TrEMBL record:
Coiled coil: none annotated. It comes from the Eukaryota. Residues 58-352 form the Retrotransposon hot spot protein,C-terminal domain. Residues 1-54 form the Retrotransposon hot spot protein N-terminal domain. PANTHER family: HOT SPOT (RHS) PROTEIN, PUTATIVE-RELATED, PROTEIN KINASE DOMAIN-CONTAINING PROTEIN-RELATED. The lineage of its organism: Eukaryota, Discoba, Euglenozoa, Kinetoplastea, Metakinetoplastina. It holds the Pfam family RHSP. InterPro entries: Crinkler_effector, RHS_C, RHS_N, Trypano_RHS. This is Retrotransposon hot spot protein (RHS).
Amino acid sequence: MVLNSDKGWPYTWKNEGQDTCDCYVNCEVDRAWQIVKVDLTEWFSSHCGTQFTPRRHVLIGTPGIGKSMAAGSYLLYQLLQYDAERLQMIAYVVGDELSLFDKNTKIVTKYDEGTRITTIVKGRSRRGAKGYIIYDIAMEGCNPPAGLPPNEWGMIVVTTPNEGNFSGWEEQSGSLRIVMNCPEKEDVKAMCVCMKRNEPTVQAGYMKEVEGRMDKVGPVIRYIFDKRPYIGWFDTCRSIVDKMTMPDTKYYSVLGTNKMCEGNYVSDKLVKVVRVRGNEGSELPYNALISSHLAELTLCKLAKLMVPNDFILLILAIKDDLISKALEKHSLFAFLIAAFVNAIILKLKELKMEKNKDDPPHLCALRVHPHERPFKPCLLPLLKDSEGKMDVEYRVLYKPEAQNFPLVEGFFFWTQIRRRWLDCR
C-alpha cells in the first residue's frame, strides 16, 4: 500500500533533502501499527478501568530500511485516523523538533529546535488531553527526555540498533521492543512498480537494476533506488572492508548474537538486524551480514585478520537460522587452518569420470605438499564486475562469488605459476 501526502511527512519536514511524498507500507510497517493498535484497544476498553497506562515501545531496525519514513509516517497516519474523542493529540518528534497535531481543531503546530518538548506535551496532558508520541531518534546517542511520556499518553521510540539511543528511557519506562525486519525482495519490486507506474516500458529494466543493487548492499531502500546514492553507499561499504584492521575485528563479534552494534561506524553499515523470538514472546534483534556480496568481502577480510580458531567460531555463530546453511556457505575457509588440512589429507578421494575409473590415481597436491596449503582468501568477483583478467597468486584460496561457478566451491594454486593472469571469462 502507498500513502501520499501533498505536504510531505514530519520526517521529510526535518530532512529537507527527502522530498518524497509517498509512504510505502509493507507487512513489517503494518505489523508495528497492529501492535500499537492492540495496546490502544486495551487502553480504551471498559474493563481496564481508568488506571490503565498504555504500553511504551521501542521500534528497532536496520538503518536506512524505512523506519522513519515508512513506519513512523504510517503510525502517524493511523493515529490521526483513530477516534478523536479517545485520542485527542499526536506528537511527532524528530530529533529536537516537535510537530503537535490537535485532532479536535485539526491544527498542526510546529516547534523549532530548542523548544522544551516535555513542557509542551505535559501542559496538554494537564489540561486533560490524551495522546500518543512518536519519537524518532535523529541524533545517535541521545535518549528521549526522562519526563516522556506524561500520564495517560502512549509512546513509541523509533531507533537504530544502538542501545545508547534508548537504554535509559527503556529502563525507566518499562517499554517493550518491536524489531522490524528489512524489506523483502518482493516488497522492493512492488516499490519499483509504483515508482515507475507512469513509465510501464521501463519498469522491468528498473526493477532488475534495483535488484542488482540490493544484492550488493542489501535491502537499504535509502540508497538502492537511485544510482548516485547507491554508488556512494557501495563505495563506503567497500572502503570499510578494505580499511579493516586487526583491532576492528572485535566489532564483528556481534554477528550471530543479539548484542547491538552500539552505533559503531565500522560494522553498522555491514550488519542488519533480524527479528527472533525471546522469552515469553519478547523480540530480539539478531545480527547478520546485510548482503551476500558484502558478507563474502567481510568474511574474506576477517579470515585474513583473525586467529583461525576465532574465525571458525565466528562462522559457526552466523547460523542464519540453520547451522547447515552457514557451514555450506563458509566452510571453505577451513582450508586456511593447518589442523583442519592435516586432519582431512588422508581422507581425500579423487573423483574420476566413469570412462577413466581404471586409470592410475593422480597425486593429491595437499598430500604431497602438506605445508603448501592456502594461507589467505580472495573473493573472485562476478564476470560483470571484473575487468576480464586478474593477477593470481599461489597459496591463495580463491572463492568465486558466482553461485553457479563450474564444479568447485573454491580453488588455489599450490606452487608459483608461469602465467600470472587468470582469465575470468
